[in-house]
Amino acid sequence: MQENLPHCxxxxxxxxxxxxxxxxxxxxxxxxxxxxxxxxxxxEDIKEISxxxxxxxxxxxxxxxxxxxxxxxxxxxxxxxxxxxxxxxETFLSKKILVPATAxxxxxxxxxxxxRTPVADSPSAIVTSVSGDVSSIIILEAPETRQTxxxxxxxxxxxxx
Amino acid sequence: MVxxxxxxxxxxxxxxxxxxxxxxxxxxxxxxxxxxxxxxxLACGITMDREESQDILQEVFLKVCSNIKGFKxxxxxxxxxxxxxxxxxxxxxxxxxxxFRWKHxxxxxxxxxxxxxxxxxxxxxxxxxxxxxxxxxxxxxLNLLSEEARTIFALRELEGLSYDEIAAQLNLSKGTVSxxxxxxxxxxxxxxxxxxxxxx
Lengths: 161, 200
Prior knowledge:
The complex is a heterodimer. Chain A is an alpha+beta fold. Chain A has 3 domains: 10-60, no CATH class; 66-116, no CATH class; 120-154, no CATH class. Chain A has helices at 10-17, 23-35, 37-61, 66-81, 84-93, 95-115; strands at 126-131, 135-141, 148-154. Chain B is an all-alpha fold. Chain B has 2 domains: 1-107, Orthogonal Bundle (Rna Polymerase Sigma Factor, Chain: A), CATH 1.10.1740; 124-200, Arc Repressor Mutant, subunit A. Helix content of chain B is 70%, strand content 0%. Chain B has helices spanning 13-21, 25-47, 50-67, 77-91, 113-122, 125-144, 147-157, 163-170, 174-199. In chain B, helix 2 crosses helix 3. The radius of gyration of chain B is 19 Å and the shape is globular. Chain B starts with 12 loop residues before the first helix and ends with a helix.
């Protein structure tokens, strides 16, 4: 830098703008800026960026939703103040828990019904039988499929029981 | 100790804290209305994302609900809120669930229709166009800064914190704060100059 400063120093200008210089350095920069257009421009640029940045974020803040945050906070507050039983009930009845729990239960039931191997009960055999003079009927049940089988048996003539 | 100045609702900060500790809804309403805007700008300045900033702010106030009873008043209430906001904003990228968002609103020059319409009426279309272009360049420049540089810049420009305060908040040296700020300004200046040069 000129004057009392050895050379131009943009970082020093940045610190000057932020009020981070001591008394001596501040005076040196102030004197320097008066005679150095380049450093004066640097300071103007910093001011411009600062102003643009502030305006930019203020513009963006127009999209914020304070009411939503307020609603969210009050809901949380009411829940945390509620008795323990109510909180537990609300937790388990909330959609977050209830929907996945119901879905899991449904899937589990479906899997169980599909994968469940049929238990072979006591071996099925003759359920009942009727014997007459000419023929006999035997009612059977298949062991696994539990289908009913009718067995009709006609006795040849002359054959006795 | 905390300052005892009244807020816009007529309560001193100590009274507000006391009511918050008692869980009074009115106190929480006041807290949100009083600080939401300022903290939202800070979160936007760090994350560059409006939707994330909205979520971050909700998290910040929920943390206040959970932790207010342990607040000793060594700093002001707002300093405490600001610290939580900075930490939450810096952690937002790490939350895996947010990476799969369908919809999010990065900061841009669109989206705030009411404000845009008002400005359109106040200034001519050419001025509006130039302003939008300038905002776009600034936005692009900010997006290319590191998160750390953006945070330092936001704390300095929006909150007016000293280098020492920023360094303490972010666990950095004062020299690092100074050089990051200088770097951020240089980059933004380059972006704005490039844009202006491109227009001419």
